[in-house]
Task: structure prediction
Amino acid sequence: MKMIVCVKQVPDPQASSTGTKVDVAAKRVIVPHGTPPVMSPYDESALEAALKIKDVHGGHVTVMSVGKNLARPVLRKALASGADELILLEDNTFDQLDSYATASILAAAIREIGTFDLILCGRQAADTDAGQVGSGLAELLHIPCVTVACGIELGEEKVNVTRIVSDGYEVIEVMLPALVTVSSEIGELRYPKLKDLQAAQKMPIVVRNAGQLGIDVASLMKLNLVSLSPPQHRNVQCCMISAETPEIAGEHLALTMRGAGLI
Result:
């Protein structure tokens, strides 16, 4: 079983947003200095899904990430957790990529690998929340795709995926090779042991740039970002409703809202 897990490096979503700014001219978000990068949490769940399959069926797990100035210690966490190989697709032009360009770069690298059985991605990234790369990658590789998975069971040349829908769950069976995007319900990434963290620092990493992949990023970009600006804050007046009983408070609230033209 050859599995590929696609992960993204993002600013820590648990970090304080104080100091985060929008550069209107450059049309990009400026994260405060010192905000640590992390692996996107949904992608961590995708890696955990791959490792669970490996625990039961064995196999080889390759982790792949695209970006500019990727943080090696952050992504080596995948190796410490149990992945067998880490491939970084890194280039100065791999900056502010849209979903199509990201999927195209991943597809080029996966074609170099050759054969694979299962590709796992997070359901969406923790920074943009677009949720498009996984489906786009499957389309470029001409393989079936199942999204928002909360359970994966491997069968003989097929995979059964339990996915989340608006009114519950559904189970979809697809033939391999296939791509599955994973939701957080599948579980958090296991915590690596200290000895595994130390061993991961010595493991080799494969790095591929745009030239080696034959990628021209400018020709791949489909999204034209017209403008980016911070949200406008409005001054809102707060009116406190007080009364001796909840019933009287509700009556006063209704009368106040009617007087303001809200009901």
